[in-house]
Amino acid sequence: MASSEWYRDNLLISTNPSLIQPAAVNAAFDSDMMHWVKAIDETLLKKMLDNSLCFGVYELPSSSSDIAGRAGPRQIGLARIVTD
Asked: What Gene3D superfamilies does the database record attribute to this sequence (predicted)?
């Protein structure tokens, strides 16, 4: 399936799986804001994400100097769609 992208202000919403940052997802899982879940093995997390339709939310840099040294935009959110 082809990925889709939407832009608004300094945000990108994308279904491109290559942009998903498992370490950022695990960090969110292990934070107090998601008290109902804990970080999981990254191999299992990757498998879970690969088998779901995911919408990643990314903060776009405000200037070109913010891009230096980054592999991609900073992930700040994730929605995962699961169905039977």
From this structure: 3.40.630.30
Tens digits of per-residue pLDDT, 67-81?
A: 556 667 999 999 999
Task: Please give the structure tokens belonging to residue 7.
Answer: 């832009």
Q: From CA 58, how far away is CA 12, in angstroms rounded?
A: 5
Query: Digits of tens for pLDDT over the chain (84 positions)?
Result: 799 999 999 999 999 999 999 999 999 999 999 999 999 999 999 999 999 999 999 999 876 655 556 667 999 999 999 887
Report DSSP state, residue 64: G
**Percent helix, strand and coil across the chain, each rounded to 5?**
30, 25, 40
Q: 22-29 and 42-50 helices cross at what angle (nearest 10)?
A: 110
Query: What is the rounded CA–CA span in Å between residue 59 and residue 75?
Result: 6
